[in-house]
Design goal:
7% of the residues lie in helices and 54% in strands. By secondary structure, the protein is mainly β. The strands form 3 sheets. An 11-stranded antiparallel beta barrel has the order 1-3-4-6-7-10-11-13-14-16-17. The longest helix has 18 residues.
């Protein structure tokens, strides 16, 4: 299934390359005249990365805050209670010492905050370089059921991890910029690489079904990085006519090899499309839909063992669809000219998870951008 998704991604990117034979010089919405209004819809919604290019010599600094809130578990598309998981879902490690036949530790909710610091620089009108450094904070709450069977709750505990995630660098390569009497259109390739700077060996203290409180290596979802170099291919289209704007992006994450702990996170394919309305130059409103397909984990870390769903590599990945609404604001005069503030909020409308797995309740992205 993952190979099929990336064949589709490659096909779309190949089509975009063919369009480059009709390319003209980039016009990345750069305007140095202080009396000309800047457009709030010159960028995609803040939740879309690598959406726009810059004029030669231009620099942009950015900060994004992203929060993901997860609550409750699903198997496939069905909600499942902690008691059902604890009594019916097999423990993949059953047979090893101290491992009960079913899962006895169940995550109940999780919050992930990401602070993303970014910079962009355009050496010429056709190519823009981009780098992003994430700082990640994760917390997950759990219930522990007493003993090897039954639904008696022994207690609860929280695990946490915090630190630098995987650093990413990309090149946005212009393929087409075309302006007609009715609309403007642009297409560029996204070619990126993720470096394994995030930790994959964080530890925390837990509560076991026997009442012990050992310090163990955290499961895969609580680690801060992939541990591998990852390719970040994609293609982005943007169009605009009058007060309306629109765009679409297809992107992927391709893991390169196995990390030092003997596993590989799943590949990812994602597609998103959006539409914007700009009633005044300083403000635009957006609606966006995004679908993602994520594979499960290949291999396993021998230090991640326990009667909990997050320790099983097969309980990762799945397919999701989200709807988003957002606002973009851009300063027009004085010291705030060119500075953008934006926010976007998203809710899932479909989740089919390789479970049991925590389901996402909502997503929020807020950010600041300044080009000069």
């Amino acid at each position: 299934m993952q190979n099929f998704e990336f064949l589709k991604l490659t096909s779309v990117m190949s089509f975009a390359v063919m369009l480059s034979t009709h390319a003209v010089l980039a016009d990345p919405n750069h305007n140095s005249d202080p009396n000309t209004p800047l457009r709030a819809d010159g960028h995609a919604p803040i939740g879309v990365m690598g959406d726009h290019r810059h004029a030669k010599g231009e620099i942009m600094l950015s900060y994004r805050f992203m929060r993901m809130d997860m609550d409750g578990s699903q198997i496939g598309t069905d909600d499942v209670s902690p008691e059902t998981i604890a009594t019916t879902v097999p423990n993949t490690f059953f047979g090893a010492p101290m491992q009960p036949p079913t899962l006895r530790v169940v995550p109940t909710d999780m919050v992930m905050d990401m602070h993303m610091f970014g910079a962009m620089y355009a050496p010429n009108d056709r190519v823009t370089l981009m780098g992003m450094v994430p700082y990640i904070e994760k917390s997950m709450n759990h219930l522990t059921f007493a003993g090897p069977v039954g639904t008696n709750i022994l207690g609860g505990f929280q695990t946490e991890s915090e630190g630098i995630g995987d650093i990413k660098v990309s090149a946005l390569i212009g393929l087409m910029d075309r302006k007609t009497d009715k609309a403007q259109h642009s297409i560029h390739l996204n070619a990126g690489l993720s470096f394994p700077s995030g930790s994959i060996t964080d530890r925390c203290r837990i509560l076991t079904p026997t009442g012990a409180r050992p310090e163990v290596r955290l499961p895969y979802s609580m680690q801060l990085g992939s541990g591998t170099f990852d390719l970040l291919p994609g293609v982005t289209y943007m169009g605009r006519s009058g007060s309306l704007g629109w765009g679409a992006q297809l992107r992927g994450i391709i893991r390169l090899g196995e990390n030092d702990e003997n596993y590989t996170l799943g590949n990812e394919a994602a597609a998103t499309a959006w539409i914007t309305y700009q009633p005044r130059p300083f403000v635009s409103f957006s609606g966006r839909i995004e679908g993602r397909s994520l594979g499960d984990i290949d291999g396993f870390d021998p230090m991640i063992v326990g009667p909990v769903q997050t320790a099983d590599p097969d309980n990762y990945g799945g397919s999701t669809i989200f709807l988003f609404a957002g606002v973009n604001l851009i300063g027009q005069r004085g010291a705030i000219r060119g500075q953008r503030l934006a926010i976007e909020f998203g809710l899932p409308i479909y989740q089919d998870l390789n479970g049991p797995q925590l389901e996402t309740d909502w997503l929020l992205t807020a950010g600041w951008q300044y080009a000069f």
